[in-house]
């Protein structure tokens, strides 16, 4: 493709290039031309700098902390010491669905006669705490994998089941330090269909809530849904 | 947000392979870049991926920054915005250009004029857009902030494709005249 003389002047072409308005083939042709033409590439810089003023109207949005961890992992990989959190970062790079599937298939391998599973992602709004729960209906066991967040010093995470009818939350126990755990669904909650329950994690003193009801902030919530 | 000179300093250290500087640069600028990418992609999962991709390019091409004549935030935002637009077009059709974004920033030496521009450019472009008709200013914003094509803009503003091209080119000429005043 040769440079056109009947199109817009080069300077406006440079602006269109910066705006990404040129079709892919013209974009490449323009790039090739600008690479060998300092005057033209100066116009690209001119427009890029001027138009970038429009970004002032874009509000910053803080990305999830997992995005940063995963980036560092992707770039610097095994050079730094492989801590649990880096491995957790790897887990987070896997989509939620495949994580669920992996967990489900793992259980299925162990329990061939398993009924269809139920899952819940108990997550804080900003993803600072994230726990994946796989519910095994046949045994009333919930298998938990914490993929983000750890408790404040001297505090613990406590898991609760919240019934749909407004009754008080029922404790499912304090989460151990270990990122994986399994808990038994207590009898009072078996009265409700599993998918009607909400799972919640609260911040509690060591040993768990002294009152039997959540005393600290509720940090994360998750609905239970069929797999 | 860090000062322009601090960001410039971080990019310079990143160019030397300083990982700590890279972490600091990420912390200082990722929220802005994520905002820019989200405006184009409007999908959190893709935007997170493109954000990582952008910083990988920044890590690899930081050495080109000093010679490209763009203000530091403009350089970072250009990489993020172009990566987001490429993702947008790649998911829409298969003809998108996947060339490295840093390569789009053609090398030119910085001039004193360009260095002086950085501070005033935000208010100037805004004031100059305000001189255009609302629709025409909207089309320029849509192209820059959302990566919209002529065809998409024509559809949004319900005008024929060629009319949109003429509109936008005239708007750019008016903008240039205004900014040169």
From TrEMBL, chain A:
Protein name stated in the entry: Anti-sigma K factor RskA C-terminal domain-containing protein
Organism: Thalassococcus profundi
Superkingdom of this protein's organism: Bacteria
Name of a matching Pfam family: RskA_C
GO biological process, one term: regulation of translation
PANTHER family according to UniProt: ANTI-SIGMA-K FACTOR RSKA (PTHR37461)
Biological classification of the source: Bacteria, Pseudomonadati, Pseudomonadota, Alphaproteobacteria, Rhodobacterales
InterPro entries: Anti-sigma-K/W_factor, RskA_C
One GO CC annotation: plasma membrane
Domain Anti-sigma K factor RskA C-terminal: 97-218
A GO molecular function held by the record: sigma factor antagonist activity
């Amino acid at each position: 493709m040769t440079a056109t003389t009947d199109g817009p002047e080069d300077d406006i072409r440079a602006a269109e290039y910066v705006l990404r308005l040129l079709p892919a083939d013209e974009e490449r042709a323009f790039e090739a031309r600008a690479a060998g033409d300092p005057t033209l590439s100066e116009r690209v810089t001119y427009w890029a700098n001027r138009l970038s003023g429009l970004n002032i109207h874009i509000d910053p949005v803080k990305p999830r902390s997992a995005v940063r961890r995963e980036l560092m992992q992707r770039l610097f990989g095994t050079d730094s010491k492989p801590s649990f959190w880096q491995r957790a970062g790897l887990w987070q790079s896997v989509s939620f669905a495949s994580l669920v599937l992996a967990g489900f298939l793992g259980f299925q391998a162990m329990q061939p006669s398993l009924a269809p599973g139920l899952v819940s992602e108990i997550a804080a709004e900003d993803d600072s705490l994230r726990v994946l729960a796989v519910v095994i209906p046949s045994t009333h066991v919930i298998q938990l994998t914490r993929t983000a967040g750890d408790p404040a010093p001297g505090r613990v995470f406590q898991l609760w089941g919240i019934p749909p009818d407004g009754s008080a939350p029922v404790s499912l126990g304090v989460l151990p330090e270990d990122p994986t755990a399994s808990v038994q669904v207590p009898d009072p909650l078996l009265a409700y269909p599993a998918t009607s329950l909400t799972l919640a994690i609260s911040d509690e003193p060591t040993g768990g809530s002294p009152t039997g009801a959540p005393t600290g902030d509720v940090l994360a919530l998750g609905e239970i849904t069929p797999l | 947000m860090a000062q322009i000179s601090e960001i410039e300093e971080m990019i310079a250290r990143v160019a030397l392979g300083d990982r700590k500087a890279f972490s600091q640069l990420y912390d200082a600028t990722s929220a802005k870049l994520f905002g820019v990418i989200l405006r184009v992609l409007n999908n959190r999962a893709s935007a997170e991926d493109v954000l990582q991709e952008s910083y990988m390019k920044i890590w690899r091409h930081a050495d080109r920054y000093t010679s490209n004549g763009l203000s530091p935030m403009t350089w970072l935002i250009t990489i993020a915005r172009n990566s987001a637009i490429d993702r947008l077009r790649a998911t829409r059709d298969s003809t998108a250009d996947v060339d490295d974004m840093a390569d789009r920033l053609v090398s030119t030496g910085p001039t004193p004029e360009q260095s002086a521009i950085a501070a005033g450019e935000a208010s100037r472009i805004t004031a100059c857009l305000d001189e255009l008709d609302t629709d025409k200013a909207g089309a320029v914003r849509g192209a820059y902030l959302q990566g919209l094509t002529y065809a998409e803009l024509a559809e949004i503003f319900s005008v024929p494709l060629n009319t949109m091209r003429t509109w936008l080119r005239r708007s750019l000429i008016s903008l240039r005249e205004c900014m040169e005043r």
